[in-house]
Amino acid sequence: MVTMGMFQRNYDSSPDFWNSVIATVLSYGTTEIPKVDRHGNRVPDPERSGLFHRSVGERKGQVADWRASIPGSRRGVHAVEFQDRYSVHVDRFDPGKDPLKHLLVDSPKTLLGLIGAGLVSMIFYSLFGGRRGL
């Protein structure tokens, strides 16, 4: 686990802070970042960095999901925002660059859910969709 002390603490410049987070997770893997550090300073919102955009993710009780694309790479960074912290990890496939591989490798539960929903829709349509005028 990466510690908060590994990140640049220049909170006035959110791109610098979030760039250091991205560099750290690319090197060391998953990390948890408290929204308020041990000195009482609130970390900047990912959206203000210009690096992250609002996204979706598997439901884990989060407030929001944020994603950053890694230029020149298939990978992407996913920040899951909870009430008190951000949980940040690297996806092997950025969903914006390769959504199918992202679903297959990084989010297979979501893929199974989509397949299941598609099958239910097809069955429902085949049973009730062709009957107009009922």
Shape: elongated
Q: Give the strand content.
A: 15-25%
Total number of distinct structural domains = 1
Q: Between the first and last Cα atoms, what is the distance in angstroms?
A: 60 Å
Strand order of the largest sheet: 1-5-4-3-2
Q: Could you tell me the number of beta strands?
A: 5
Calculate the mean pLDDT score and round it.
84
- H/E element sequence: HEEEEEHH
Rg computed from alpha carbons, rounded to a whole number of angstroms: 19 Å
Question: What class would the helix/strand composition place it in?
Answer: alpha+beta
Uncertain segments of ≥5 residues (pLDDT<50)?
none
Q: How much helix, percentage-wise, in residues? A: 25-40%
Count up the helices: 3
Largest sheet: 5 strands, antiparallel
Short description:
This protein has 134 residues and is α+β, with helices and mostly antiparallel strands. The chain has one domain (4-97).
Per-chain topology:
Elements: H1 14-28, E1 31-34, E2 52-55, E3 64-69, E4 76-81, E5 85-91, H2 99-106, H3 108-129
Antiparallel strand pairs: 1-5, 2-3, 3-4, 4-5
Could you please describe the fold and organization of this structure?
The protein is an alpha+beta fold. It has one domain (4-97). The chain is built from three helices and five strands, in the order H-E-E-E-E-E-H-H. It has helices at 14-28, 99-106, 108-129; strands at residues 31-34, 52-55, 64-69, 76-81, 85-91. Strands 1-5-4-3-2 form a five-stranded antiparallel beta sheet, with helices on one face. A hairpin with a 6-residue loop joins strand 3 and strand 4 (76-81). It starts with 13 loop residues before the first helix and ends in a 5-residue tail after the last helix. The model has no long low-confidence stretch (mean pLDDT 84).
